[in-house]
TrEMBL record, chain A:
<dbReference type="Pfam" id="PF02912">
    <property type="entry name" value="Phe_tRNA-synt_N"/>
</dbReference>
<dbReference type="InterPro" id="IPR004529">
    <property type="entry name" value="Phe-tRNA-synth_IIc_asu"/>
</dbReference>
<feature type="domain" description="Aminoacyl-transfer RNA synthetases class-II family profile">
    <location>
        <begin position="121"/>
        <end position="340"/>
    </location>
</feature>
<keyword id="KW-0547">Nucleotide-binding</keyword>
<dbReference type="GO" id="GO:0000287">
    <property type="term" value="F:magnesium ion binding"/>
</dbReference>
<keyword id="KW-0963">Cytoplasm</keyword>
<dbReference type="GO" id="GO:0006432">
    <property type="term" value="P:phenylalanyl-tRNA aminoacylation"/>
</dbReference>
<comment type="subunit">
    <text>Tetramer of two alpha and two beta subunits.</text>
</comment>
<keyword id="KW-0460">Magnesium</keyword>
TrEMBL record, chain B:
<dbReference type="Pfam" id="PF03484">
    <property type="entry name" value="B5"/>
</dbReference>
<feature type="domain" description="FDX-ACB">
    <location>
        <begin position="729"/>
        <end position="822"/>
    </location>
</feature>
<keyword id="KW-0030">Aminoacyl-tRNA synthetase</keyword>
<dbReference type="InterPro" id="IPR045060">
    <property type="entry name" value="Phe-tRNA-ligase_IIc_bsu"/>
</dbReference>
<dbReference type="InterPro" id="IPR045864">
    <property type="entry name" value="aa-tRNA-synth_II/BPL/LPL"/>
</dbReference>
<dbReference type="InterPro" id="IPR005121">
    <property type="entry name" value="Fdx_antiC-bd"/>
</dbReference>
<dbReference type="InterPro" id="IPR009061">
    <property type="entry name" value="DNA-bd_dom_put_sf"/>
</dbReference>
<feature type="binding site">
    <location>
        <position position="491"/>
    </location>
    <ligand>
        <name>Mg(2+)</name>
    </ligand>
</feature>
<keyword id="KW-0460">Magnesium</keyword>
Length: 366, 822
């Protein structure tokens, strides 16, 4: 019969012994021997547990608790040693699987591979660049994470403005200045970036990612817009209309596409207008039927926006517009559903992708 | 904003048809959201009389009715309504009629053995409310046989428009009517001020204790009122626009909120403690039990209306339940106030309370309207509830809202692109309520009407701090000068119709414009095409992902974690697009498509600064190459990813000979099968490799997977150097093969580089064509076979010269790598 003590010296000894055995076990086989020798059927801890019945009843409770505590501790130590050994084994295996990465790669992609392709959104971006490029626009870009000054304040949307609420803005933790950066809710902050970084005349489009906290069948929390900004002398609302009509008819390939302009309001333009194109609501056919479809917002750049960015509105004026890339892409190609745009389902991608070797060209028509 | 056609016509004298009205609303910026003609669905229902009501012989709960639909032919109707009784009038549906509340078309039938030829309707069955406790019980004087819809005033179309944030004045039927009149659709009917004679001193006084809480407030009590349900016309009006009638006193406030855009609040005088209502800021710890049944913990930033016991209303947003009016109210106190729009907007947002009052106050309520609004409301309450009015009590002063603005007529063309005759422009402004103060041939100066706080308003600039003081000042002065004018140009063009502005194509500097893209932007487009041409599918994926997943791909600093993610698994800005593409590969595998090649041009986020958002061309190949007769299927490996990287870099004009590959790729790659492509020791152009098995495992990707990222921002602008004359030597090149035995740890690149450098004049190319490790070689050694191209320039090489070069190559490779010729 095992000598038992109430001080638990034998338990401490077992703990110490097991720890040193575990440390000495440098592979899984040795580790398993320690495990069986401790927790197995005839392991040392198991033996102590079995001996509990022989302990005098007045000490049994205390002894039992101590044994259970020790068991939990040893189980934990044994398990963490197993994880460490497995990780070491994996690291060793991976190290042994070394490949000379300086080797020259294969000279071509694998034979028989399916053709790749350009995502419809990327395709539309390229078409926009071609069509607005023909009207003398350059492409400007900006980051996804913006200051709230660029996203809102510069654009005449102060803190309390009701429009801020409509934007469903994503916020990041406040920076050192105490202001919370935002995921840009539109591509319009690049208007301000451009006006601050270059002198007029300005003629840019801004294709890019935009973000709003809205997720359902017709809204995605990340989507795409293209912004247009023209600042020059003598640019009028008539030019805005001409520019958009020229673009829309070329983009949709319908030379007599009906385009309607309605008065509206945006904090960053004045006068502001919404633009509709003619279509048939039932068949989805563009350019035919008596219905109107809202497609973009636009207007003459608000004098406050110019002044916020240091441009004297007595000297310079111009227009801005913004439209949703997904919307015009879906309309152009008759794509029914927004959600698959971001799911990277290869079946959908293959169906809608376009040939990388046929970029949009004015010569061929976009 | 909803209103009925007849309500509109109460303010607008017009002959225009509904369609004309809708067209003009759209044109002038009051976008029509919808038109609801509730009467259309109920057109077939008639007012009928129950002539006889007896117990159904076979059912305790049913009654057998004889109903006269108006033509004297009695119909037999089986009805379960407990209120069905002889002599009552109700609404009958005949067979063939569609019942909106149940969605079925009525047929003749038999109920418990008794014929039923028609149906008596409840309100719910007609889709006019929730009441299904019995059939509709019409007053005795309802005309028998008449269309129910016409009699009930439901043949009045309801128009819903969306009002832009600048147009508080258009959140009223009167404001809409004014715009339509300005656009030529009729005449705005003026409001008449009723004559009210005060009969007693007001039991309540106003005190503005804090000007932040309120600018100006009027009030008046009416005693001896009998409150109860509103008359039918008012209830119908409110129901039509989606409001719930409450009681006459409250309904009157809603009538003026919608009709004039003049929100009002009514207190029950008996429930107010003390004799003073105080406008002040809330104190920490105060709360309001609001009329919507909720309780709000107020902050010192909220403006409130308080009595002796504490807050009784969140001024301009919502009233309090304890002092609200109900059927027991006999003395009412009407509040008619002006509040700071910004404070209302912020308080409303803070407590997420959306009320009609807030929508109007945060846009701005006509500052000249309180007096007239109060008189009209008093008059209507007395009409509906009786009683006698007290004197008017006030606090604060009507704000000074008077402003003027000047329009130079040439700006209509200069900014608006439209040739508008001066008289037409002035006429439009006058019809909108502007009054001419001065006019000459070149310009007109007008006084801005009180209700148009959006014209020549006070909104402050927020100029960028980097602007020089002179530049900022000039721009600010310019803005102050032209902004009111732009407001007026907008008004004229808006009312006239923007379709009247002739479109003009943008002038371009030349027929062939300069490139739209910078070289850097072109590179991004090219990178995408190169990858697609190599069989990859271009993807667009969300830039945020689950933080736990993102952490397997790099740093996930808290500054890149969204404060308000739309879903728990979309909360962290991704460290690399490779992560998104691997998730996509995993989803494709789960759908039965384990072999994919996906690429994306997107951002990798390091920190929130613009520089911390890297433009990356990333790709993932997962699974195996296709089965094909020409080439057996094999798992994708790190060399495929390296091939993609080098293809992109070469296409983007990176000098390939100078690139180095090091083995210190990020932790999401297999540590022994991944590399970093560098240009010089510091510039990292790309990473590539097999994905670490643990990362794959965590993403449920069981097959092999490789990935890469090319950092487009790091790629230097290619030097636009003119090409010199091509090197076209007259002598044939010679090719010699060498096989070296070298330690397996030696990078093959070292062997190639040494061979290339052995004789720079003669050696023009070195290619590795075999790489072997196996049983025939000593442990830890590999055999590398290279082909060296020698290009003589002066004369054909002699055998001795060739031997000399070969010896140089062997020596150079041996010295650099310890290799020996096999």
């Amino acid at each position: 019969m095992t000598e038992t003590t109430t001080t638990g010296d034998d338990l401490a000894a077992l703990a110490a012994e097991t720890a040193s055995q575990l440390a000495a076990a440098t592979d899984l086989r040795a580790w398993d021997a320690v495990r069986v020798g401790t927790l197995g059927k005839s392991g040392r801890l198991t033996a102590l547990l079995k001996g509990l019945g022989a302990v005098p009843p007045e000490q049994r409770k205390e002894r039992g608790a101590a044994l259970n505590q020790l068991k939990a501790r040893l189980e934990g130590e044994i398990e963490s040693r197993r994880l460490a050994l497995e990780k070491a084994a994996l690291d060793a295996r991976l190290a042994a699987e070394r490949l000379d990465v300086t080797l020259p790669p294969r000279p071509h992609p694998p034979a028989g591979a399916e053709a790749g392709g350009i995502h419809p959104i990327s395709r539309t971006f390229e078409e926009l660049m071609a069509l607005f490029g023909a009207q003398g626009f350059k492409v400007a870009e900006g980051p996804d994470i913006e200051s709230d000054w660029l996203n809102f304040s510069a654009l005449n949307i102060p803190d309390h403005h009701p429009a801020r609420q409509d934007h469903d803005t994503f916020y990041l933790p406040a920076g050192p200045d105490g202001r919370r950066p935002v995921l840009r809710t539109h591509t319009s902050p690049v208007q301000a970036r451009t006006m601050l970084s270059q002198e007029p005349p300005i003629r840019v489009i801004v294709p890019g990612r935009t973000w709003r906290a809205d997720h359902d069948a017709t809204h995605s929390p990340m989507f795409h817009q293209v912004e247009g900004l023209v600042i020059d002398r003598g640019i009028t609302l008539g030019h805005l209309k001409g520019c958009l009509i020229d673009f829309l008819r070329a983009f949709f390939g319908i030379s007599n596409l009906p385009v309607r302009f309605r008065a509206s309001y945006f904090p960053f333009t004045e006068p502001s207008m919404e633009v509709d194109i003619g279509w048939n609501r039932k068949t989805g056919q563009l350019g035919a039927g008596g219905d109107w479809l809202e497609i973009l917002g636009s207007g003459m750049v608000h004098p406050k926006v110019l002044a916020n960015c240091g441009i004297d509105p007595r000297e310079w004026q111009g227009f801005a517009f913004g439209m949703g890339i997904e919307r015009i892409t879906m309309l152009k190609h008759g794509m029914p559903d927004l959600r698959p745009f971001y799911e990277s389902d290869m079946r959908w991608l293959r169906h809608w992708a376009s040939d990388p070797l046929s970029p949009p060209s004015l010569a061929e028509g976009v | 904003m909803k209103f009925t056609l007849s309500w509109l016509k109460a303010h607008l004298e017009t002959e225009a048809s509904l369609d004309e009205i809708l067209t003009v609303l759209n044109r002038i910026g009051l976008e029509v959201e919808g038109v609801e003609d509730r009467g259309a669905a109920l057109a077939a229902f008639r007012i009928a009389k129950v002539v006889e009501a007896t117990q159904h012989p076979n059912a305790d709960r049913l009654r057998a009715l004889k109903v006269d639909p108006g033509d004297g032919n009695l119909l037999s109707v089986v009805c379960g309504a407990p209120n069905a009784r002889a002599g009552m009038k109700g609404v009958v549906a005949l067979p063939g009629a569609f019942i909106p509340g149940t969605g079925i078309t009525l047929k003749k039938g038999e109920i418990r053995g008794m014929a039923s030829e028609a149906m008596m309707l409840s309100a719910r069955e007609m889709g006019l409310g929730e009441d299904h406790s019995g059939i509709v019980d019409l007053p005795a004087d309802a005309p028998l046989g008449e269309s129910y819809v016409r009699w009930a005033g439901l043949d009045d179309p309801v128009i819903e428009i969306s009002v832009t944030p600048n147009r508080g004045d258009a959140l009223s039927v009167q404001g809409v009517a004014r715009d339509l009149a300005a656009a030529g659709l009729g005449r705005l009917k003026p409001l008449e001020r009723p004559a009210i004679t005060p009969a007693y001193p007001s039991p309540l006084r106003w005190e503005i204790a804090d000007e932040r809480a309120c600018d100006y407030v009027l009030g008046r009590a009416i005693r001896g009122v009998r409150n109860g349900p509103s008359p039918k016309w008012l209830q119908d009006l409110l129901v039509a626009i989606g409001q719930r009638p409450i009681n006459a006193l409250v309904d009157v406030t809603n009538l003026y909120t919608y009709g004039l855009g003049r929100p009002l609040h009514v207190f029950d005088v008996a429930k107010v403690k003390g004799s003073t209502l105080t406008m002040r800021m809330a104190r920490e710890g105060e709360s309001l039990a609001a009329l919507n049944g909720k309780s709000y913990a107020l902050t010192p930033e909220d403006g409130i209306i308080a009595d002796e016991t504490g807050p009784e209303a969140l001024g301009g947003i919502i009233g309090g339940a304890p002092t609200g009016c109900d059927e027991t109210t006999t003395e009412v106190f009407i509040e008619c106030a002006l509040f700071d729009p910004v404070r209302i907007a912020l308080s409303g947002r803070r407590h997420d309370i959306r009320t009609d009052a807030r929508a109007r106050f945060e846009r701005g309520v006509d500052p000249a309207l309180p007096r007239l609004g109060l008189e009209l409301a008093t008059w209507t309450i007395m009409e509906l509830c009786g009683g006698e009015p007290s004197e008017v009590v006030a606090a604060g002063e009507e704000p000074r809202w008077q402003r003027s603005a000047t329009l130079r007529f040439e700006r209509l063309a200069g900014l608006g692109g439209a040739d508008v005759p001066a008289d037409e422009a002035v006429g439009i402004l006058e019809r909108l309520g502007f009054t001419v103060q001065a006019r000459d041939a070149a310009r007109v100066t007008v006084a801005v009407p009180s209700w148009r706080n959006d014209i020549a308003g006070a909104g402050a600039l927020d100029q960028h701090p980097s602007l020089s003081p002179e530049r900022a000042r000039a721009a600010a002065e310019g803005c102050a000068e032209v902004e009111p004018e732009a407001d007026l140009v907008e008004e004229v063009l808006r009312i006239r119709g923007l379709d009247q502005v002739p479109p003009v194509s943008l002038p371009v500097a030349g027929i062939v414009p300069p490139p739209a893209l910078t070289p850097k932007q072109s590179r991004a487009v090219l990178a995408r095409r190169v990858l697609a041409a190599r069989g990859m599918l271009d993807c667009v994926s969300f830039g945020f992902m689950e933080a736990k997943v993102a952490a397997r791909f790099g740093e996930t600093p808290a500054v890149l974690r969204l404060e308000n993610p739309i879903a728990a698994d979309l909360d962290q800005m991704r460290p690399t697009p490779v992560a998104s593409l691997l998730l996509a590969a995993s989803r494709n595998a789960a759908r039965g498509w384990p072999d994919v090649a996906l690429s994306e041009l997107g951002a990798a986020y390091r920190d929130p600064t613009p520089e911390g958002q890297l433009a990356v061309a990333a790709g993932v190949r997962a699974g195996h190459t296709p089965r094909h007769w020409a080439e057996p299927s094999r798992p994708f490996d790190a060399m495929d990813a390296k091939g993609d990287v080098l293809a992109v870099l070469a296409a983007l004009g990176v000098p390939m000979a100078a690139l180095q590959v090091t083995a210190d790729a990020p932790g999401f790659y297999h540590p022994g099968r991944s590399g970093v492509v560098r240009q010089g020791p510091k510039t990292v152009l790309a990473t590539f490799g097999e994905i670490h098995p643990q990362v794959r495992g965590a993403l449920d990707l069981s097959g092999p997977a490789v990935g890469f990222e090319v950092f487009l921002d790091a790629i230097p602008e290619p030097k636009r150097r003119k090409r010199g004359a091509p090197d076209l030597p007259a002598f044939q090149p010679l090719r010699r093969d060498f096989a070296f035995l070298v330690d397996a740890t030696v990078p093959s690149e070292a062997v190639l580089r040494a061979a290339r450098g052995a004789d720079k004049a003669l050696v023009t190319d070195v290619a590795l064509f075999d790489c072997y490790a196996g049983d025939k070689l000593p442990e830890g050694k590999v055999s590398l076979a290279i082909q060296v191209t020698l290009q003589p320039r002066e004369a054909t090489l002699t055998d001795a010269e060739i031997e000399t070069v070969a010896a140089k190559i062997v020596a150079a490779v041996g010295k650099a790598t310890g290799a020996v010729l096999r």
